[in-house]
Design a protein that fits this description.
500 residues; mainly beta; Immunoglobulin-like; six-stranded mixed beta sheet; five-stranded antiparallel beta sheet; 1 helix; 56% strand
Length: 500
């Protein structure tokens, strides 16, 4: 069942936002997303914005929404999408990005169709044209995924995508490779030569285009929350200094080899992890961050020295800064939450703020203490492989069509790292009797037989002193399954399908 509602909403209003005593004329949009919506945002080529979030109640009936804004402007399109296939509890769409053909790719995840225990997730991708018609939809099954949430995504130079630092697709959503991501490094930046910079926690690592490691470095007692690649192919990060500094805000710039160029931090503490940063056209930086339930703007020069800082609003109505974008040379756009004083309701807002020279002084009244500091490497490792070889699995892919959903194809893995690939193993499914007959070309000793469902759960495991053939009655739900046979000289995987 697919439900699509396309609305035109006039949500813009012109207001005066008090920035520490000075009124700046700005565009303000109340997007009316509740705080549980977990929205994500990306900027379009025309400086409009795509916002993807939950829509509905916090239960298993929620759908997802896509909001397509032009800013400044006076309207947006709201696309409510119900992609709950039968038996799926919830769909959480957290990715929205403009494609090369001016369409939109949205993505997210949902849990198991057959209600298997535990957190079993799949990633879903939907491609929309410029009129919001679905062109294609695909499910990606990742055997190593521990979440269905897309927590990071990057559009790459070939118009493909890297999702959760472990799924590489082309522009049509076809899988190029899957990898097991060794670390939680949600920040992914692409170098000019196609290499990737990953960052998370106190670690920054450089990998080639297929995630083989080049170098990895850990930088003291910090926690990286946001990062960008600069116009000079350097890398800048901001985040929190932990432990004894009680969450001070920091600025870190490194070169393409991970060497520290500049490291600065505030003396103010109690900063929150909600933050984002932006490099402006004049090579200065804006950090949008929260401290003591107030949203701050921190403006730094090219080396990280403080130029000015200020508070968005003294009434503590703006909270949880999410993203900051440059809209033009004198205007930047912020995306954050707004707590209504009268209704005590939290919703998301887009604010387009003028930052020309005549208005900059409005931030000067709240200059934060900011100073140089030193940062030592905890680890400085150069290695040939970022991921141990035994955790890299290459896949061939087959397609399997769900008959009862709107989803076109499900991509499922079949191991290609088999030894003895030429061993003949025959599988004869008899769907009318739920009977599967396995037979091998010869007798093998001390064999383990394991059957997995398409979500990676073990359905059956048996050991045989001698194995040549076996007939099993499998009362399993209709889907794709994998059978593996292992012994000292045997390690093969075969697939079969149980149908309705």
């Amino acid at each position: 069942m697919q439900r699509i509602i396309l609305l035109t909403a006039i949500l813009f209003q012109t207001i005066l936002i008090n920035l520490n005593g000075q009124n700046l004329l700005s565009k303000y949009i109340d997007i009316s997303l509740d705080s549980y919506a977990n929205p994500s945002i990306s900027q379009k080529q025309d400086n409009g914005y795509l916002i993807c979030s939950l829509f509905g109640q916090v239960d298993y009936t929620q759908s997802s929404s896509l909001r397509d804004f032009n800013l400044p402007g006076d309207s947006c399109n709201v696309f409510i999408l119900d992609v709950n296939p039968a038996g799926v509890y919830s769909v959480i769409m957290t990715m929205a990005v403009e494609t090369a053909d001016k369409g939109i790719l949205i993505g997210g995840g949902f849990d198991s169709i057959y209600n298997t225990p535990g957190n079993v997730y799949n990633i879903i991708l939907l491609k929309l044209d410029s009129l919001y018609n679905i062109q294609w939809s695909k499910i990606i099954y990742h055997p190593f995924a521990n979440t269905g949430i897309i927590y990071s995504y990057s559009k790459l130079r070939d118009n493909g995508y890297l999702i959760n630092n472990s799924i590489r697709t082309d522009s049509l959503g076809n899988i190029i490779w899957l990898r097991r991501s060794p670390l939680y490094q949600p920040i992914v930046l692409q170098a000019s030569n196609g290499n990737l910079i990953n960052a998370g926690g106190n670690e920054v690592s450089k990998k080639d285009s297929v995630l083989n490691g080049i170098w990895s470095k850990k930088y003291g007692n910090i926690s990286i929350n946001s990062g960008i690649r600069t116009h000079n192919n350097e890398y800048v990060f901001c985040g929190l200094v932990d432990s004894s500094f009680n969450h001070a805000l920091f600025f870190l710039k490194i070169d393409s080899s991970g060497n520290i160029l500049n490291y600065k931090r505030s003396d103010y503490t109690n900063w929150d992890s909600h933050m984002d940063m932006l490099q402006l056209s004049d090579n200065t930086y804006e950090i949008l961050a929260m401290r003591n339930n107030q949203v701050h703007i921190v403006h730094l020069d090219s080396t990280g020295d403080l130029k000015f800082s200020g508070i968005f609003n003294n009434s503590q109505n703006f909270i949880n800064p999410n993203k900051i974008f440059q809209h033009s040379d004198s205007v930047f756009t912020t995306f954050m939450d707004y707590r209504s004083p009268s209704y005590n309701k939290v919703s998301s807002v887009l604010i387009d703020v003028s930052m020309n020279d005549s208005s900059i002084c409005g931030f000067g009244n709240d200059t934060i203490p900011w100073r140089n500091d030193t940062l030592n490497f905890l680890v400085d490792t150069v290695y040939n492989s970022a991921i141990p070889l035994d955790t890299i699995i290459d896949f061939n892919f087959i397609t399997y069509k769900y008959k009862t959903t709107i989803i076109d194809y499900c991509y499922l893995p079949v191991s290609s790292n088999e030894i003895n690939k030429n061993i003949e193993i025959q599988i004869f499914p008899n769907p009318t009797k739920n009977e599967i007959h396995f037979s091998t070309d010869q007798v093998y000793n001390n064999v383990e037989l394991v059957i997995y469902d398409q979500f990676g759960y073990i359905k059956l495991k048996r050991n045989y002193r001698e194995f040549h053939s076996e007939k099993l009655v499998l009362n399993y739900p209709p889907m794709l399954y994998f059978m593996t046979l292992k012994s000292d000289i045997l390690n093969v995987t075969r697939k079969f399908v149980i149908i309705d």
